Amino acid sequence: MTLFKVLAYAKGFKRQAMWASTCSVVNKLFDIAPEILIGIAIDVVIQQEDSFVAQLGIVEPKNQLFLLGLLTFLIWLGESVFQFLYLKNWRELAQKIQHRFRVDSYSHIQNMDMAFFEDQSSGRLTAILNDDVNQLERFLDVGANDILQVLTSVVAVGSVFFILSPKLALLAFTPIPLIIFGAFFFQRKAEPLYTKVRSMAGKLAAAINTNITGIATIKSYTKEQHERQRIHAISDQYVQANQAAIKVSAAFTPVIRMAILMGFLATFVIGGLDTLNGNLAVGAYGVLVFLTQRLLWPFKNLAVTMDLYERGMASARRILNLLNQPITIRSSDHDKRIQLSGEIQFNQVQFTYPNQAKPAVDAINIHIQAGQTVALVGQTGSGKSTLIKLLMRYYRADQGNLCLDGHEINTIHLNALRSQIGLVSQTTFLFNDSIFANIHYGNPDADEQAVYRAAQQAEAHGFINQLKDGYNTPVGEQGTKLSGGQVQRIALARALLKNPPILVLDEATSAVDNETEAAIQKSLLTIGRDRTVIVIAHRLSTVVNADCIYVMDQGHIIESGSHTELLEKKGRYQSLWAIQTGQIKSPE
Ligand SMILES: Nc1ncnc2c1ncn2[C@@H]1O[C@H](COP(=O)(O)OP(=O)(O)OP(=O)(O)O)[C@@H](O)[C@H]1O
């Protein structure tokens, strides 16, 4: 059951939960007490010197009333204090639990395999981390307290009823099984409806998120109207899912109200007749009539609580589902944390993406000595970036093995591996922060001078200094306030600041102009001297200096050698070179 899983998750907060529960129960007891005092007061004014209080030793009716007044004051004070305490404690608890759920789910998502992200939309994940966690918080905020207080009322008021009139107690309690049965019936009906609501909320968030990310494309294709209609349709489905749930939840309260009315009428009329016949004291009748309200009325809140409960559990199921997604690429304490020199060996490596029929790379044999600069070239889709993803251990090779410094990659601790590879990927991502912060991300221990040096090596220092705010310039979301070439140079500086033994540049300078690229090449000659560099580029002028160039085609390496050797071979590389240098025209 989802609730138990949520409670198991909240284990660490047991003490606070116990304290909060105690406060809820005490508050409810104080809440019920004034009704009993009213009954006793009626008894005092009617019976005077023969009243119940008089039997306790206070004979003077005035004094009896003063005592009752003082008790009422103390009870109200106690009720207020414990209301403050239960509200504070339940809310704090709800905050802590939602915080733990959110941070744990975020942390779990971060560690998920790359394959997981291919099937997910960022909007859906955001909806789980935000909306679903908030929904759960809303239930924890008030739901647990409501349930506890209803139970307290039933036990406390029930006891008073049975003491005063067992016959009326039975009548007043008649609606309760009906209400509980109704609540379970409602829960069964509402559960699938709320699951649908949460799933539609995720779909809607995903659609909005995608559109905002792709706003430039929407504008350039003047698709605003079309996209508005699409979002309208999804939002409409969300509304309809909610309406179906609302219909069920709205029907619950009136049904409970009618059940409560039956119990109330029974006490009201039958208790009244008993009082007229002298079988029940007037004060006791007063207490019972007021207490019937106290007993049954909280059940009305059960509808709201059940509603919150269903919404909360639908959200909890989504969060727990996410937390239960297995992580296959992970490290253990046994994995090696070694200092890499930069030697990389692919041995007969084959890899097929999940749900794909054809391998993206096959029979790959590459041996890169530490300190070498190698290049991967070839048609788009030939498998170059896939080799890098295997090197980063975003995916695991299906066949063959990949070794670094002679150690099989799967035996190296993930943090040790990734922290020693500087990757500037095709899809450069900058954080919505200043240029300085983005470069500094590469090595948080680096000082200011090191950041400037990295920027100089990446040919970024010059343009950054020309910006009004220099290194403090905000880059905008995903670097939108900068040009493509500027973003690439900042990403390069970030990777250089990391100073890794292996540097991977996957189309890292594709957006910079030829002149800047030539300058970057020059810096790379120096940078590459004491590390392994893997360069992927379509522009072959970028790779001419590489120690070895691997030409890929449809997942295979079809040629390898230095620039001169490959030209002499007169194979694929030579024809690509001829096209790029304008010696021959590219095929139509
Ligand atoms: N996440 C993925 N899921 C399924 N197939 C993928 C995925 N990523 C890449 N592929 C497929 O794997 C093959 C190799 O892709 P890869 O990105 O390695 O090519 P590439 O040589 O780097 O191309 P480009 O020069 O365009 O960057 C392609 O057919 C591509 O469609």
TrEMBL record:
<keyword id="KW-0812">Transmembrane</keyword>
<keyword id="KW-0472">Membrane</keyword>
<dbReference type="GO" id="GO:0005524">
    <property type="term" value="F:ATP binding"/>
</dbReference>
<keyword id="KW-0813">Transport</keyword>
<feature type="transmembrane region" description="Helical">
    <location>
        <begin position="170"/>
        <end position="186"/>
    </location>
</feature>
<protein>
    <submittedName>
        <fullName>ABC transporter ATP-binding protein</fullName>
    </submittedName>
</protein>
<feature type="domain" description="ABC transmembrane type-1">
    <location>
        <begin position="19"/>
        <end position="311"/>
    </location>
</feature>
<dbReference type="InterPro" id="IPR003593">
    <property type="entry name" value="AAA+_ATPase"/>
</dbReference>
<dbReference type="InterPro" id="IPR027417">
    <property type="entry name" value="P-loop_NTPase"/>
</dbReference>
<dbReference type="InterPro" id="IPR011527">
    <property type="entry name" value="ABC1_TM_dom"/>
</dbReference>
<dbReference type="GO" id="GO:0015421">
    <property type="term" value="F:ABC-type oligopeptide transporter activity"/>
</dbReference>
<feature type="transmembrane region" description="Helical">
    <location>
        <begin position="279"/>
        <end position="297"/>
    </location>
</feature>
<feature type="transmembrane region" description="Helical">
    <location>
        <begin position="65"/>
        <end position="87"/>
    </location>
</feature>
<dbReference type="Pfam" id="PF00664">
    <property type="entry name" value="ABC_membrane"/>
</dbReference>
<feature type="transmembrane region" description="Helical">
    <location>
        <begin position="255"/>
        <end position="273"/>
    </location>
</feature>
<feature type="transmembrane region" description="Helical">
    <location>
        <begin position="147"/>
        <end position="164"/>
    </location>
</feature>
<feature type="domain" description="ABC transporter">
    <location>
        <begin position="344"/>
        <end position="579"/>
    </location>
</feature>
<dbReference type="GO" id="GO:0005886">
    <property type="term" value="C:plasma membrane"/>
</dbReference>
<dbReference type="GO" id="GO:0090374">
    <property type="term" value="P:oligopeptide export from mitochondrion"/>
</dbReference>
<dbReference type="InterPro" id="IPR036640">
    <property type="entry name" value="ABC1_TM_sf"/>
</dbReference>
<keyword id="KW-1133">Transmembrane helix</keyword>
<dbReference type="Pfam" id="PF00005">
    <property type="entry name" value="ABC_tran"/>
</dbReference>
<dbReference type="InterPro" id="IPR039421">
    <property type="entry name" value="Type_1_exporter"/>
</dbReference>
<dbReference type="GO" id="GO:0016887">
    <property type="term" value="F:ATP hydrolysis activity"/>
</dbReference>
<keyword id="KW-0547">Nucleotide-binding</keyword>
<keyword id="KW-0067">ATP-binding</keyword>
<dbReference type="InterPro" id="IPR003439">
    <property type="entry name" value="ABC_transporter-like_ATP-bd"/>
</dbReference>
